[in-house]
Design goal:
Elements (H helix, E strand, L loop, with lengths): L7 H8 L7 H6 L17 H16 L3 H13 L4 H10 L2 H7 L6 H9 L3 E3 L2 E2 L12 E4 L7 H7 L10 E4 L4 E4 L14 H9 L1
Antiparallel strand pairs: 1-2, 1-3, 3-5, 4-5
Helix pairs in contact: 3-9, 4-5, 5-9, 6-7
Length: about 200
Amino acid sequence: MARYTGPKSRIDRRFGEAILGNPKVQAKRNFPPGQHGNNRRRKTSEYGVMLAEKQKAKYTYGVLEKQFRNMFDKAARTSGITGEILLQNLESRLDNIVYRLGIAPTRRAARQLVNHKHIVVDGKVVGIPSYSVKPGQIVGVRERSKSLEVVQNALAGFNHAKYPWIEWDESQKAGKYLHKPERADIPETIKEQLIVELYSK
């Protein structure tokens, strides 16, 4: 599956947030990338605002257009608030769960751990980052991978209490996905209603 491999700081500056990279970079150059990034720009159209919010969600969770559209269509077919369901489905991706558990420092690193077969779901190795974790399933580090430096460094001092929909077992280096998170608990600053309005046009 293809993914964005360009400069992380470029994306951060584009959205004015440290979505992929280092917050210090964003603080240093708090204007959009490109030749005219520091110039005054005309006001963004309503469509442009909605499109930017969709792009922000895609970059945040590391999902490309076709996959994102499929996830939106699935959310739209599910009863409930479409935007909230979309975010819950994105949060249920295996690479995101690995990131939320503190096993990896970033979603990109989490994706790499999954791709390299370091992660197990209910005791079985799963190498698909987009795998949808179901409530009740247990996600952990493969036994022979628990000594990996990247895993140990990421877990050192990590506060698992900030994500109440996941229960962490330190002795097993695994976490149980208790339930889909409430919108108020998801820390991302994505305005999901704008995405719904964009796809509804």
